[in-house]
Amino acid sequence: MKKFSDRFIDQELISSTKFSDIYKATDQKTGGIVALKITVPDEELQPHNSIQEVQLLKKTNHSENIIQILDTSKRDFDELVIVLPYYQLTLSQYMKKNSKIVKKAFNFNPFLLRGTREEVLRPTVYENKLGLSKSKSVVKGIANGLSFLHSNEIIHRDIKPSNIMFKSIDDPTPTIIDLGISFQYPTNNGKEFQNEKVTDVSTGIYKPPECIFGLKDYSYPMDIWSLGILMTLIFSNDLKACIEEEKGSSDISVIYSLFKLFGKPDCSTWPEASNSPTFANICLEKQPPIKPVSDLLELADNETKEVFMQMMVYESKHRITADGIYGAINI
């Protein structure tokens, strides 16, 4: 009998992070294309936990908007192999496939041409052609997946474009992947207390304000905030989120942008922030948002804008739930 590792051929590395490698491969048992997530659990640092991820995936294996686990195995060097369905496109790739290129990128060597670097190294400019119905379907699907996670007492903690996948350019059904840093109530298998959760979660511009300011008793609404930032990309005219995404963006730069977009809160509008020494020390004066919602969701209808406004509230317990978003958006 063949070893489990011999079952998968034509392995191609498609993604690599500090604690995992993702391969595209052919499963000789079924003849289908799969994704292999390979980790070394003993080398993972909190909150990364691939063994728990397997447990959570088995628990959530009945939602069309959550990645389905197909198989698992241990192999040499204490590696854990998680077998998953293969999806072609991340959210960003799906959006680009459903867009029109307005201007192509220029990538010439600036030292060989006259002109400024900005004139020479211009990024590709896109025009969003996804359409209102499909855009709302994507948001509704993500909300449905989050509702399923939250009903099973799981906070995803890393909603971002690369963790939303699609089977093809024509299928607007989103699939949430990567539960590797998710929190399972009540104590994340004894690793985190409810009121002492790790705040070094979520990524870049998708990190909610409660985590930026070190509020360790956050809960499901953190995923709602991340989805709201995603929506500014989905309903943008040029495939750009409301905050410019740069490598190495600091929490300080993110919160500065959030204050401009959603207004500066004080302890009267954001009571839970009074538990943050950092927030208390910056002594903010309350100010309204600089940009209207119509500028943040350029291609959305009024119904979607209304839902968005209920999502992007600093006081997390006042945010609309994932189930509420799913029910409020009509296609």
From TrEMBL:
One of its GO terms (cellular component) is cyclin-dependent protein kinase holoenzyme complex. The keyword ATP-binding applies. Belongs to the protein kinase superfamily. CMGC Ser/Thr protein kinase family. CDC2/CDKX subfamily. GO terms for biological process: positive regulation of biosynthetic process; regulation of mitotic cell cycle. Pfam families: Pkinase. The lineage of its organism: Eukaryota, Fungi, Dikarya, Ascomycota, Saccharomycotina. GO terms for molecular function: ATP binding; protein serine/threonine kinase activity. It comes from the Eukaryota. Keywords: ATP-binding, Nucleotide-binding. Residues 8-331 form the Protein kinase domain. This is Protein kinase domain-containing protein. Coiled coil: none annotated.
